Amino acid sequence: MESHDITVGELYDQFVAPTYGRFPIHPKRGKGVDLWDENGKHYLDFAAGVAVNSLGHAHPALIEVFENQPADLLHCSNLYQPRGQGELARMLSRQVVKAPGKCFFTNSGTEANEGLIKLARRFGEAVPSPSGKPRREIISFLGSFHGRSTGSMAVTGQEKVRTGFGPLMEGFVHLPFNDIEAFERGLTDGSVAVFLEVVQGEGGIHVATPEFLRAVAAICRERDMLLFFDEVQCGMGRCGDLAGWRCVSGSTEIVPDGVSWAKGLGAGFPIGAIWFRDRPAGERSLCELLGPGSHGATYGGSPLACEIAKVVIERIVTDNLLSNASELGQSILNEAERRQLPMVSGVRGLGLMIGFQLDVDRLEKSAVLKDEGRVASVAVVDALGEAGLLTVPAGGDVVRWLPPLVACQEDVDKAFGIMEKVLNDLMK
Ligand SMILES: Cc1ncc(COP(=O)(O)O)c(C=O)c1O
User: Fold this and answer.
1) Do 138 and 171 meet the contact criterion of CB atoms below 8 Å apart?
2) pTM of the model
């Protein structure tokens, strides 16, 4: 074992900003669904970097790109036209969205959503309200999460994310999720765009109903509003299709006007993207609203990032990871129903986005919460981590499983074994 002058915990305490409530786990190495810490302790990684490592750790196809692409070209300016960026944009249009449109590349989901906000603002100017005033109101849903920059935080439908950062950007309305009447009531002449996470991840794994999705899409069409899907967490195969909204709606009818991706697109390498549909926007096409000088990102869509993302999409398709995600996800839901885990009052999700709803009343009586005054989801995720299963809290009362898309039934069986034991122990 290597010897160090300072423990990892001390390094974080002294030198790393405390923006995250971090668990005392010090990952060192990973392979597939497995992860090991500095001392060789093994974990089954069902957090996957919060829905990032879709191909698992150390996937040979990604390592090959890292070995070869930087030797050719690591980065070049967006003033030029490296082929890979164009090819990835074509894949996103043709294979993922399956509609004509164009892409802009970023480094994260937050930045991708910022691009969509700017697009909506331009569209509101190009296609104003009947009175001639620019439309400036962007609608999103309670419980949603879209990022932590000033713009994406203003879209986010969670008060706790926005608190203390005012004055916030204006022009955002948050309406109840899966409630079409409230949606209709919330519309005004100034409404210009809708941001929708078809499976809310950070908000606790809430899946949009197909009826809600179809109704919102129809109203956006009628009122010439832009329909944006935030696929940062639920996209790129996690739900069982390269497009989360197709999984939820069960059809190919709905075509969005804008999509944002990140996380699973790079599978561990930072890349985000937005796509906008080739559709009219006043005198021009929506694709032309962000013209030269209107938007940019120095690192966005670098040759390395694009090569990685191309390989990620190829592997998801050729290795049948879409059907694996939907079949394994269904098997998790069935198994959870069969096992009736202690302290879990319900399980929901789609594909490999699974939320275990904790029975907080019962947990509050258990020693782990009473002694330490902790949030239920955090206490359970902590105990699971200690027992070798990495998961993610969502809100105060949900534990998320977001395993890599390469996970298999054996991994799931092991995860259930650990979870059942840990919850039984907590109940004692
Ligand atoms: C749905 C959704 N949108 C946006 C973001 C922000 O992405 P990033 O952390 O890459 O900026 C997240 C992150 O959790 C997310 O889940």
Assistant:
1) yes
2) 0.97
